[in-house]
Amino acid sequence: MLRSVHPQTLFHFVLTNQVAWEALDHDDNKKFVSETNDGQPGLEIGFHVPIKPDSRVITRLGRNADLILRHSTPQKVMSRVYVAFEFHPTTHFILLSVRSKALTSVTFGLVSPPGDPGTPENTMPVPTLGDGVIVYSRDHTVSIASYEFKLVWRTLSSTLGQNIALFKDLALQGYNSCLQRMAAFGSRDRPSDYDHTEAQSWHVTRLNTAKCQLFEEVKEARERLGGDDSGAFGTVYKAVDKKTGNLFAIKVVKLEGDPLQIQTARAALHREVKNLERLNHPHIIEYLGCGAFETNAPEIRTPLREGSLASLTKSVESKQERRILANSVTEQILTALDY
């Protein structure tokens, strides 16, 4: 009989091929085998699995990791730590991080929700290759070297939105608990020059190769900013990068009018975007890319900046402070326009 699921478990790895089933019977893995909501045996993934806490790391999998994957072939050699699930401390998303040099040997994709026929493989048409964001409360198929798994989330609430919120809280609690456990470790357990800020800033300094697309959005995580009103230049959304979990902004411009007017507006917008691409000025926001230009709602990607000019003006009260603020903002706008 399977034991009860550990309360800190986020999701299970349900095994879908013979090689994966062998992992279920490994002596070191048995203590992390429990029952999913639909009664299947699976490997628990959560902050409780690692013996030693490591800030953002939730669970590692590999030849000598938190969960043991021993099967290896000449074509798909199992490394000491092949993959790790990590917590993004800023966006609170969960990332699948590939630690092996064989980046292309790890793929994952969303499983079609109930009632959706999906694709013949019952997954999203284009699976993610290598690193990427795991969408909360959505089951995934995961391929790691010779292993095939189904990532199955627990059910904490019958409401999807509430379920997602509970999982984010659970992951954040696990992360904070992990940091507290790290603080309790003595100096013999880590180098004397250990820099705690490095563990929290990894997602800022992480490198991307030039061959990869700069940003790929997690569609399910898009969140509208600024209420229901659209600005003069379209509607702004907060978005999450699929590979790194970092935040960025998407401005969606709505093109309206007859076909000729739309094409004229599209050409003008395209010209402005090309200009923005070439600019480099401290008072002009950086350009990170664009998309959907073939539609009537083209998108422009920029860094996410908190607040607005309206919120900035409300932050000062005295007339003198407002005058200083107005002069400073006006100067920045004029120098940018002059540039």
TrEMBL record:
UniProt name for this protein: mitogen-activated protein kinase
Enzyme class name: transferase
Reaction catalyzed: L-seryl-[protein] + ATP = O-phospho-L-seryl-[protein] + ADP + H(+); L-threonyl-[protein] + ATP = O-phospho-L-threonyl-[protein] + ADP + H(+)
Source organism phylogeny: Eukaryota, Fungi, Dikarya, Ascomycota, Pezizomycotina
Molecular function GO terms recorded: ATP binding; MAP kinase activity; MAP kinase kinase kinase activity
Domain Protein kinase: 222-339
Organism name: Gaeumannomyces tritici (strain R3-111a-1)
EC number per UniProt: 2.7.11.24
Cellular component terms per the entry's GO annotation: cytoplasm
Transmembrane segments: none
Kinase is among the record's keywords: yes
Coiled coil recorded as keyword: no
Record key words, sorted: ATP-binding, Kinase, Nucleotide-binding, Serine/threonine-protein kinase, Transferase
